[in-house]
Write a structure and sequence with these properties.
globular, 4 helices, binds adenosine-5'-diphosphate, alpha/beta, binds magnesium ion
Protein backbone atom coordinates (compact mmCIF):
# COMPACT_ATOMS: atom_id res chain seq x y z
CA UNK A 1 0.00 0.00 0.00
CA UNK A 2 1.28 3.49 -0.82
CA UNK A 3 0.04 6.66 0.87
CA UNK A 4 1.23 10.12 -0.15
CA UNK A 5 1.08 13.01 2.31
CA UNK A 6 1.81 16.65 1.60
CA UNK A 7 2.29 17.99 5.14
CA UNK A 8 3.55 16.88 8.53
CA UNK A 9 -0.05 16.97 9.80
CA UNK A 10 -1.18 14.64 7.03
CA UNK A 11 1.57 12.18 8.03
CA UNK A 12 0.42 12.47 11.67
CA UNK A 13 -3.13 11.67 10.53
CA UNK A 14 -1.95 8.39 8.95
CA UNK A 15 -0.10 7.60 12.18
CA UNK A 16 -3.22 8.39 14.18
CA UNK A 17 -5.21 5.83 12.20
CA UNK A 18 -2.50 3.22 12.73
CA UNK A 19 -2.44 3.98 16.46
CA UNK A 20 -6.19 3.70 16.77
CA UNK A 21 -6.24 0.38 14.88
CA UNK A 22 -3.20 -1.12 16.62
CA UNK A 23 -3.23 -4.00 19.08
CA UNK A 24 -0.78 -5.26 21.68
CA UNK A 25 2.01 -7.17 19.98
CA UNK A 26 1.97 -5.10 16.80
CA UNK A 27 5.51 -4.23 15.69
CA UNK A 28 5.93 -1.31 13.29
CA UNK A 29 9.29 -0.71 11.62
CA UNK A 30 9.97 2.75 10.16
CA UNK A 31 12.66 3.16 7.52
CA UNK A 32 13.83 6.25 5.67
CA UNK A 33 16.40 9.02 5.77
CA UNK A 34 16.84 11.50 8.60
CA UNK A 35 13.97 14.00 8.43
CA UNK A 36 11.75 11.79 6.32
CA UNK A 37 8.95 11.81 8.90
CA UNK A 38 9.37 8.76 11.14
CA UNK A 39 9.05 10.62 14.43
CA UNK A 40 6.28 12.82 13.03
CA UNK A 41 4.35 9.67 12.12
CA UNK A 42 4.91 8.27 15.62
CA UNK A 43 3.42 11.45 17.14
CA UNK A 44 0.23 10.58 15.27
CA UNK A 45 0.33 7.01 16.56
CA UNK A 46 0.55 8.44 20.07
CA UNK A 47 -2.53 10.55 19.40
CA UNK A 48 -4.41 7.54 18.04
CA UNK A 49 -3.55 5.60 21.22
CA UNK A 50 -4.50 8.58 23.43
CA UNK A 51 -0.99 8.79 24.90
CA UNK A 52 -1.15 11.88 27.13
CA UNK A 53 2.40 13.24 26.79
CA UNK A 54 4.05 14.60 23.66
CA UNK A 55 6.19 12.17 21.68
CA UNK A 56 9.69 13.32 20.79
CA UNK A 57 12.61 11.62 19.12
CA UNK A 58 14.28 9.02 21.35
CA UNK A 59 17.53 9.35 19.39
CA UNK A 60 19.68 9.93 22.48
CA UNK A 61 17.82 7.78 24.98
CA UNK A 62 17.25 5.05 22.33
CA UNK A 63 13.91 3.99 23.83
CA UNK A 64 10.88 5.53 25.52
CA UNK A 65 7.86 3.77 26.95
CA UNK A 66 4.56 5.64 26.99
CA UNK A 67 1.62 4.45 29.05
CA UNK A 68 -1.74 4.70 27.34
CA UNK A 69 -5.26 4.19 28.65
CA UNK A 70 -5.67 0.93 26.75
CA UNK A 71 -2.26 -0.04 25.38
CA UNK A 72 1.27 1.08 25.96
CA UNK A 73 3.59 2.36 23.24
CA UNK A 74 7.28 1.48 23.03
CA UNK A 75 9.17 3.92 20.79
CA UNK A 76 12.71 2.97 19.79
CA UNK A 77 15.22 4.82 17.64
CA UNK A 78 17.71 2.15 16.58
CA UNK A 79 19.99 4.63 14.78
CA UNK A 80 22.60 4.45 17.52
CA UNK A 81 22.23 0.77 18.30
CA UNK A 82 25.50 -0.68 17.12
CA UNK A 83 25.04 -4.37 17.81
CA UNK A 84 22.39 -6.99 18.43
CA UNK A 85 23.51 -7.53 22.08
CA UNK A 86 22.76 -3.83 22.61
CA UNK A 87 19.27 -4.47 21.28
CA UNK A 88 18.86 -7.47 23.61
CA UNK A 89 19.88 -5.28 26.56
CA UNK A 90 16.82 -3.11 25.96
CA UNK A 91 14.79 -6.21 26.91
CA UNK A 92 11.67 -5.04 25.12
CA UNK A 93 8.45 -6.98 25.68
CA UNK A 94 7.14 -6.86 22.11
CA UNK A 95 4.02 -8.85 23.04
CA UNK A 96 2.92 -6.52 25.82
CA UNK A 97 2.76 -3.23 23.89
CA UNK A 98 2.63 -1.63 20.48
CA UNK A 99 6.25 -1.16 19.35
CA UNK A 100 7.54 1.37 16.86
CA UNK A 101 11.14 1.03 15.80
CA UNK A 102 12.70 3.85 13.81
CA UNK A 103 15.69 2.61 11.75
CA UNK A 104 14.42 -0.91 12.47
CA UNK A 105 16.39 -2.21 9.50
CA UNK A 106 19.51 -1.82 11.68
CA UNK A 107 18.26 -4.52 14.04
CA UNK A 108 16.28 -6.53 11.51
CA UNK A 109 17.69 -9.95 12.51
CA UNK A 110 16.36 -9.43 16.05
CA UNK A 111 12.84 -8.51 14.95
CA UNK A 112 9.94 -10.82 14.19
CA UNK A 113 9.29 -11.16 10.46
CA UNK A 114 5.64 -10.30 11.11
CA UNK A 115 6.17 -6.51 11.24
CA UNK A 116 4.38 -3.69 9.54
CA UNK A 117 7.16 -1.96 7.60
CA UNK A 118 6.80 1.64 6.47
CA UNK A 119 9.43 3.15 4.19
CA UNK A 120 9.35 6.96 4.07
CA UNK A 121 10.54 8.64 0.88
CA UNK A 122 10.82 12.44 1.12
CA UNK A 123 10.57 15.09 -1.57
CA UNK A 124 10.17 18.72 -0.38
CA UNK A 125 7.04 18.66 1.79
CA UNK A 126 5.62 15.49 0.33
CA UNK A 127 6.26 12.02 1.64
CA UNK A 128 5.57 8.65 0.13
CA UNK A 129 4.75 6.00 2.76
CA UNK A 130 5.34 2.53 1.36
CA UNK A 131 3.57 0.17 3.74
CA UNK A 132 3.92 -3.60 3.72
CA UNK A 133 3.09 -6.51 6.01
CA UNK A 134 5.39 -9.42 6.86
CA UNK A 135 2.82 -11.84 8.27
CA UNK A 136 -0.77 -12.30 9.48
CA UNK A 137 -0.64 -9.93 12.44
CA UNK A 138 0.72 -7.01 10.45
CA UNK A 139 -1.58 -7.96 7.56
CA UNK A 140 -4.54 -7.43 9.89
CA UNK A 141 -3.28 -3.95 10.75
CA UNK A 142 -2.61 -3.09 7.12
CA UNK A 143 -6.07 -4.31 6.07
CA UNK A 144 -7.66 -2.28 8.87
CA UNK A 145 -5.75 0.80 7.73
CA UNK A 146 -6.80 0.27 4.15
CA UNK A 147 -10.40 -0.18 5.28
CA UNK A 148 -10.32 3.06 7.26
CA UNK A 149 -9.41 5.21 4.25
P1 LIG B 1 12.72 11.40 11.14
O1 LIG B 1 12.17 10.90 12.44
O2 LIG B 1 12.44 10.49 9.98
O3 LIG B 1 14.15 11.78 11.22
P2 LIG B 1 11.09 13.74 11.68
O4 LIG B 1 9.68 13.26 11.78
O5 LIG B 1 11.81 14.03 12.96
O6 LIG B 1 11.93 12.73 10.76
O7 LIG B 1 11.15 15.07 10.81
C1 LIG B 1 10.42 15.25 9.64
C2 LIG B 1 10.48 16.74 9.30
O8 LIG B 1 9.90 16.96 8.00
C3 LIG B 1 9.66 17.57 10.29
O9 LIG B 1 10.33 18.79 10.49
C4 LIG B 1 8.35 17.78 9.55
O10 LIG B 1 7.68 18.96 9.96
C5 LIG B 1 8.83 17.89 8.11
N1 LIG B 1 7.81 17.52 7.10
C6 LIG B 1 7.47 18.25 6.02
N2 LIG B 1 6.55 17.64 5.27
C7 LIG B 1 6.28 16.46 5.90
C8 LIG B 1 5.40 15.39 5.59
N3 LIG B 1 4.62 15.34 4.48
N4 LIG B 1 5.39 14.34 6.44
C9 LIG B 1 6.20 14.32 7.54
N5 LIG B 1 7.04 15.32 7.87
C10 LIG B 1 7.09 16.39 7.06
MG1 LIG C 1 13.18 10.26 14.20
Amino acid sequence: MIIRTDSADATRDVGEAVGRLSRDGDVIVLEGDLGSGKTTFTQGVGRGMAIPEPITSPTFVVMREHRGPERDLVHVDAYRIGSLPEWDDLDIDLEGAVSIIEWGNRVAPALPSDCLTIVFVADDDSRELQISAGGPRSRRLLDALEGSR
